[in-house]
Amino acid sequence: MAVKSKTIYVCSQCGGETAKWFGRCPECGEWNTLEEQVKNVVTGSKKSGTVAVSTAGGHAMTPMNIQHITFGDEDRYSTGLQELDRVLGGGIVRGSLILLSGEPGIGKSTLLLQICEYLGQGQKVLYITGEESEKQIKVRAMRLHVQTENLFIATITDAQTIVDTIVKESPDIVIIDSIQTMHVESVPSSSGSVSQVRESTQLLMRVAKEYGISIFIVGHVNKDGAIAGPKVLEHMVDAVLYFEGERNLSYRILRAVKNRYGSTNEIGVFEMHDTGLEEVENPSQMLLSDRPQHVSGSCVMEGSRPILTEVQALATKSGFTAPRRTATGFDYNRMALLIAVLEKRAGFFFGTLDVYVNVVGGLRLDEPAADLAVALALMSSVTDQVIDQSVAAFGEVGLAGENRAITSIEQRLTEASRLGFSKCIIPKRCLRYIKQPEKYGMEIVGVSYIRDAFKALSR
């Protein structure tokens, strides 16, 4: 057999391979994601379509009957930060591989270095960096008051050397900052490429599972907000955490988009200070603390975790031929859909108006329950009708203008009641799931259509 080099093109989004370059990936349909790579191919004299079967023995595994597999409770390490433990499902699971991603400067490295102080009280922590020197890590650790003697720093970029170091030192927790700087010598491509990221992560995953070592890997994001590297990276790890927030604002949102050991509906809220990240014990109160009074275009909703936040909208006459549409903290396409529904089903005209939607505090609303709050804020601004400070609203808006049912209705009402809201507008179908509406001490209004929701504001 001979080894022959072959040029292929690999998609940076899905990891799909093709022999020719295309402007659009044939596998996932993304544009301008194919990258040229060199692949070593083993050639031989075997006929096409044949499969070699070894009869020598020793290579085949004997599957274990599921009834014979034993397990105990999951070993978890507390990070010392309740918000992070909440997102992880109760703490770091022993032997898990966790990916932490976010924009540069958002606080990924700060968060991971900060938890080393608490983890170092009972565990050995190995911090491997390919972006900073040991002195830089030391300076940042002093600023964050990280003084544990169980924290060890190493500057390594070779993935195999990292694995050998982990096996030799036998730490309990490993932090890799970042995966885009790591490389495997046998892979003929530069660091950060699709192949390098995939192979490096594969090596780390094996050592995590085989030796029961929990590993954090830091991943950068591209211009679209997705993790830089192949999409298969997210499938390989046990948990994927996204660090969100505006760099010019102090608040940070930690969101789990994948977690094999817990819920993906939890978020953690932090505030960035000079001395590091601090947990926000009452996120709802924080997000509503500066809410203006007697201003149109302001409404309130909450996410899957009972967090209330302010949604602002502004509709004003456009000075351009094509009106502007801007959404901050809310999906742009979803905003456009809501505007179309309001025009067609509720009779509100936005054709010549600039429209701006903003979610206060740097929080990004992804769940459909935010639809009603955004729609009411838009209607409030276009009619200049003030929404009372004591009104909260949530619900999914359909193309027919209907207000669709949402989940966790009682948890949402409990949080709204705790914060002193006197009226809550919800989907009418959700009323059947409220067992004791009087215990919330507020007026609960169920509406079926978006037009009815706006009328409920003035009742």
Shape: globular
Question: What percentage of residues falls in helices of 4 or more residues?
Answer: 10-25%
CATH third-tier fold name of the largest domain: Rossmann fold
The whole-angstrom Rg is 26 Å
Characteristic terms for this protein:
459 residues; 4-stranded mixed sheet; alpha/beta; Rossmann fold; single chain; 23 strands; 3 domains; 11 helices
How would you describe this protein?
By secondary structure, this protein is an alpha/beta fold. The protein has helices at residues 82-88, 108-119, 134-143, 159-169, 194-211, 232-236, 283-288, 332-345, 371-383, 409-418, 450-456, and strands at 2-11, 17-18, 34-43, 76-77, 92-93, 97-102, 125-129, 151-155, 173-177, 214-220, 239-244, 251-259, 267-273, 276-279, 298-302, 308-317, 325-328, 353-359, 391-393, 396-397, 403-404, 423-427, 443-447. It folds into three domains: 2-43; 76-281, 3-Layer(aba) Sandwich (Rossmann fold), CATH 3.40.50.300; 285-456, 2-Layer Sandwich (Ribosomal Protein S5, domain 2), CATH 3.30.230.10. The strands form six sheets. The chain has a nine-stranded mixed sheet with strand order 8-7-9-10-6-11-12-13-14, with helices on both faces. It has a four-stranded mixed sheet with strand order 15-16-18-17. α5 links the parallel β9 and β10. The longest helix is centred in the middle third of the chain and has 18 residues, at 194-211. The termini are far apart. Mean pLDDT is 86; it is low at 45-56.
